[in-house]
What does this fold into?
Amino acid sequence: MRAVAVFPKTKEIKLIDHPEPNVTRPTDVKVKIINVGVCGTDREIWSGEYGDPPAGSDYLITGHESFGQVVEVGPAVQAVKVGDYVVLTVRRGCPENCIACRQMRQDFCYTGHFTERGIKGAHGYMTEFVVDDEKYMNLVPPEIKDIAVLLEPLTIAEKALMQVFTIQSRLPWECRLEQGGANQTCHNAIVLGAGPVGLLGAMALRLLNMDVHVVARDRAPNPKEELAKSLGALYHATSEKTPQQIAEQIGNVDLVFEATGAAKASFDFLQVVGPNGIFIFTGVPAPMIDITLDAGMLMRDIVLKNQVVLGTVNAPKIAFENGIRDLLEFQKRWPEAVRSLITGFLPLERFQETVKRTDREEIKTVLTLGPSLPLQRAGACAEPATGGRK
Amino acid sequence: MRAVAVFPKTKEIKLIDHPEPNVTRPTDVKVKIINVGVCGTDREIWSGEYGDPPAGSDYLITGHESFGQVVEVGPAVQAVKVGDYVVLTVRRGCPENCIACRQMRQDFCYTGHFTERGIKGAHGYMTEFVVDDEKYMNLVPPEIKDIAVLLEPLTIAEKALMQVFTIQSRLPWECRLEQGGANQTCHNAIVLGAGPVGLLGAMALRLLNMDVHVVARDRAPNPKEELAKSLGALYHATSEKTPQQIAEQIGNVDLVFEATGAAKASFDFLQVVGPNGIFIFTGVPAPMIDITLDAGMLMRDIVLKNQVVLGTVNAPKIAFENGIRDLLEFQKRWPEAVRSLITGFLPLERFQETVKRTDREEIKTVLTLGPSLPLQRAGACAEPATGGRK
It folds into this structure.
């Protein structure tokens, strides 16, 4: 079967022929892949920054943002049946079976010896068929099949938000009393970055009734500003305002959801978090970004304002399940906005066109095993790649 | 009555005569102060770095680490009675009565308009009598009256640890499975700094059965190393080992409890926190400590290792209550060690001798309204200042 693979030794990215996997264990599920999202991690793996083939293989099949349909199940499978739509989780536990992995919280693996499909030591989803245990399958209702490829990037926000509510239960956080009055206001959230993780995060925060402020580089008007507005969020351009100016406009900054991977900008915004606020890092920047900062002032603020900085990576099955519930709600509230996050579908064969990000307005490009479709702009309704399948 | 007060305008610190307060409201309690601890915050206030007198006053009575005895109660008081030993909390709520202050969580005040006795807008405890509402009184069992002046600095760790367990309930944290085996190990904690907050924190962490590593500047042998050992903790000198060398010796660093206020050293140790680890800042450094750091690498680590950085300041009544339970346990397990944290008693009149820290081996100096006693060394058993009172 066809697959997109990277060869770390020769730094090639190729469409290869890879043996089709089969159901062998009683709890195995075979999935026909329909869509695979392309993300920054894929591009870093393709450029040779990281990515490890499985033991004994020269190549790694890339791709970890999946959506497919069950075509075969082992005799003991109960979670899904043939014909079901599914999204697979990404990380698999360590051989030591550490306390986190044993509890299906591979996302918190202690040993670091986990594998990740499409990233580290296990083949990914940019291929025709994959086989895996039923416990890694997340059942997708047909109503959201056209956007379900967005589930994996959404789970970054879902895992973050699960932690935020646990962490903030350390204090009276539900709602603040407005100064001098009896009215309650909900939280003010800044989303740093208007890529897929940022915009999906903004939607999840809007569902929680937060005041959401999307912060990105480009000045308005632009399609991402339009998209933010359609969610009831405000848009701020860092090319027009400093972090301090943005914060002043917002008032108390209760939460910052960083989804840029930009170290300098992140540390700039760390300094505008308000009392009892939480700053969430999700981006993985390159190392060796030396910055000079007033560590004394930063530490003072963190202490005197009782702040939390949280780093979060990967996501557990429960975050996928929460994400599915949220996607259903996004679809109801903002059908056009959520569809417009997918700015293009390309057939798997044309993966080379996605290796470099060339379009400033790209949000999420999806490789499809379905019919080829033209690139769509943000704001336009993308034709689902699944039309006519089944 | 006598009181130690700072005059911000003239930068004087003086023993003054201040009107004795009286019980006026039905829930007021009048306390005769026995002991008041001197801490870094007091020294910063005395040196003019901060500290605000109450509205309309030229001076601020300093001191926030209290221990005293109830001498009079209003008719509605139920929490304490005459003769009881008490420690008072420090922070009082904001006039806006924000959602945190309304819930007796002034330590998380949102408006910043709180007052703090002895620090900000309210007189402190370096005087003969204080009056306050019964809800700010913490009843001290007579068994620990000689060490109860250590309660307020201990509450810094108590509040931090309350938050740590809430925050870490985001993941499987109880105990890690040892690599390749079935044995469980408990958490590894680094305590940065061997002052009163650090050493009391080390004791609290030992009660939680953590492996505790006290890190301070001076090379061993020294009295603080002895003290750490007596708790079953290990001592490491930063003058002998780098943070990386210390971390390698420890293994996975699950928790760092910073109690130094030193920005540079803190950020150095932030870089050795392990997977799922938590770094707690409690120190308030001076601003304008510019450091250059690899923000990219720091952010990568925070994300890829699912880490949390927590800042914490002040403490709520519940932390005082937890601290009293812990002091009772410290007294049982390590009676000499906990007593040796008080390295000297001085009569209130001799407060000038405590304005500058002159003794490297000083841990906690206590001003007493009781008889004058010679300075004690760490490791020696300090004579209680309360002997013969009552």
Notes: The first helix of chain A runs from residue 40 to 46. Confidence is low (pLDDT under 50) at residues 177-183, 371-390 of chain A.
